[in-house]
Records
---
Amino acid sequence: MRRESKGRGGKTVTVVAGCLLEEDGLKELLSDLKRRVGSGGTIKEGNIEIQGDFAEAVLKELEKKGFKVKRSGG
């Protein structure tokens, strides 16, 4: 999991990469995360992207769902 803003017009997104889930599982996880943080998001190249800086909230939600999460970057 990481935050990105480079190449996005100054906007920050929270990226969840490396989820070993099928497409349907990613869509369900994306929906749960968007609902949890109250923001939009999408799936690009197998990564979940949540609009905004929600690293802590996403981290807690993923851990609650049983995922082992490692933060990268700042």
---
Amino acid sequence: MSLTQRINEDAKTAMKAKDKETLKVIRMLKAALQKEQLEHAEPLTAEQELTIITREMKQRKDSLAEFMKAERQDLVETVQAEIAIVERYLPKQLSPEEITAAVQTIITELNATKADFGAVMSKAMAQLKGQADGQVVNQTVKSLLG
């Protein structure tokens, strides 16, 4: 079952359960997927769907950081609930140790030096897509390349 199909099924379930908060988030995800679909002639691939859901997650995490900085606890709680719902559609997130191990493997494969930062980041982001936050990968690559 594709991610879009799963979201559609979950939307139906949320409607039947009268779960307004979940339904609101699912509708936002669905709208983002449909908007992207309009820009492509063929159906979205699983990778494209994952990219869209990841982008939606990043927007929510950015909002969360801003709301926390502004000490808006009411909005923090709302966004945290949205993040929990969006996480259902993403692959399991890797731990910092798993990210470090993956990046270390890539550095070894490429025999990378500090000057190869871009190449390591490119390969790491492709390999860890949807499983790790880009900022965490970036910091890990910087620390390992020293």
---
Amino acid sequence: MKITVKLFATLRDFGPKYSEIEIKEGSKLYDVIKHFKIPDDFPLIRLVNGDFANNDYELKDGDIVSLFPPIAGG
């Protein structure tokens, strides 16, 4: 199945800003994070189709995964 992955800000060090990747049925969000070799201890905000998701979210064909570093400002 095919999903779209968007990496924002400093996460672009791990891959392109936008990519479509093929994954196996039953893949979890964690599998995508590992695909891009993002370290386990890297702080992430994870969205799937615009909604917050955790690492064990099971992805579906056509999902859009957006990964952000935490953002702070003042």
---
Amino acid sequence: MIQSIDNSQTPRIHQGVADITQMHNNLTLAQAQNGSDQSVVQAQLAVMDETTLRIKSTLSEIEDLDYAEAVTRMNKEMMSLEAAMGSFQKISSMTLFDYIRG
């Protein structure tokens, strides 16, 4: 292109300008794609950070479990379930007359 300018070759100068414009456009598109890719990477890093935090929290809950308290809670819930099942069994076996008398 420099030789074209020195020799005043207008068609080659126009072609050089068109080539430079095309290179500029390609570079701009590459930068836009790079920015888009970086945005995706940042979003994935945020998801990974959140997942890591959730996993660490779950692990901490498991490691710090108070077994005595957990067994007590489970026994209490089992007693409640058994009581509910017994009540349901009594109610479901009653007839309307038993219910009215009762």
